[in-house]
Amino acid sequence: MAFGIQCMVHxxxxxxxxxxxxxxxxxxxxxxxxxxxxxLNKLVRDGTLFAFVEMGREHGGAWPSTNNAVESVNAxxxxxxxxxxxxxxxxxxxxxxxxxxxxxxPKSRRFA
Length: 112
Hints:
By secondary structure, the chain is mainly alpha-helical. The chain contains 5 helices and 2 strands. It has helices spanning 2-16, 31-46, 51-58, 68-83, 89-101, and strands spanning 19-22, 25-28. The protein has a two-stranded antiparallel sheet with strand order 1-2. The chain is flat and about 55 Å long. The model has no long low-confidence stretch (mean pLDDT 76).
């Protein structure tokens, strides 16, 4: 089993080391994959990739099974932007801040 994983890692490493010539300069062919691997490696090293699993254990596993509270707020914001779809990007941002600051949501669920 370990040999198969080592073989796969070796193949992946050689794949990610491939390069092409762009404008006479060497550039990695799969730069986006290399960047994704670096990000994942950093998260694993820092111990933050699966931090929610450890937090769940600390709280006795009492996590809600859905994210409905967040999704309802997002749905209201999307709906408001859909109704005002002619706004420019800066005006959309201002509309989101304005909508978020209204007394639509209880203080415990309101965000800045």
